[in-house]
Design brief:
Strand content: 35-45%
Largest sheet: 9 strands, antiparallel
Mean pLDDT: 80
Order of helices and strands: HHHHEEEEEEEEEEEEEEEEEHEH
Structural class: alpha+beta
Number of domains: 2
Length: about 375
Amino acid sequence: MGIFVFSNSCTAQYRRSLFWLKKSAVPIFGVLSLLGSVDGIADGPAAATIQQQRSIPLEPKSEVIDRATVAICETLKTIRPRSHQSTKVIHGIDKPYILYGDLFHNGGIYALVTMDVLFDNGRHIGIGFAQWTAHGWEARGFWDIQPEWVPRGAAPDPDVRYPITPAEKPFWVMDFNGKGDLGLVMAGQVWRYWQEHFLFRFDSEKNLLVPLEQAMRRPRLIHGWLRLYYNSGHRSIYEEWHFARWNGRRFTQKISWHSESPYNNVDPPFTEVVLTDRDGGEIEYRIVEGEMGSDRQLVYEITRDGEAFARLSFEWPKPIGVVDGTAEIYMFKKLTHLPSSMFPDTQPFPRKPLTHFQTVRVTGSGEAVKMLSP
């Protein structure tokens, strides 16, 4: 399946739909998921996956498309926004969640809505996207995404127990670079160790949303870098974080930090760091914990592109006790050249300044010593 483009107004499609609604009671969205795709819009493997698996095409037009459009427009029919409408949210118990207004600060009025529709296999919640025009609301997109969220401060539902804390909203506007380049994030289903998150950019020429990335936790913008989280799923043995820059169309110049503890208890835990340049070239570092010389020392062996690169020894004036991740933060900063504040915050205790309680010794090539020394 793929992204779709169409521009018929809700009113026109509503009239055409009346005939089909009277004639047939076939559930419409099970049929929608079988329609063909529109190629050439998504950019990159993650975007292509979202386009193929989540975007429901509305071209070519058909009775099914008309019914889908009616469903979107029925949700928005009571909203008559002003020109340059500020962003507003409408939601309530057992009611659709609606975000509308000048979402992208371009003078246009758009809306995102949660939609309760029927597939041929039961209930399903989707997300619709629409534009306000001189003819009223015009549907611009629909996604096979089932948002789950719990508003901040809401009383817990005794009948629903989430394994992780879900998003507070089904979707929201996000600044992709801290400079006002706005896109959208949609939150999907909650799984055991993660929740679906999908990022979209707005295409102002075609008035539609284009998929960009997906992640397993709420995306964060830190010092102009987007941080995305991933893990290995229902039996989590690794966690991974990607860091990327926005270039106006997609996220590039990526850095990944992959931390893994193999199940077999034979292979040692390791961390892989991949740096991707603007031309797509990659440098890969692999960090493995070496033998400890004492209870006051941690040793790490680092390879670069499969070749020995450096050996780091972190030494404390007292026995280490609980390892608080400071050595990892140090290596993160040196290898990625990112601020230490961007290191994945997985430790439950406050971080201490590195220089206050340890010494770092580096051996290896001259380049490695220069790169990794304090």
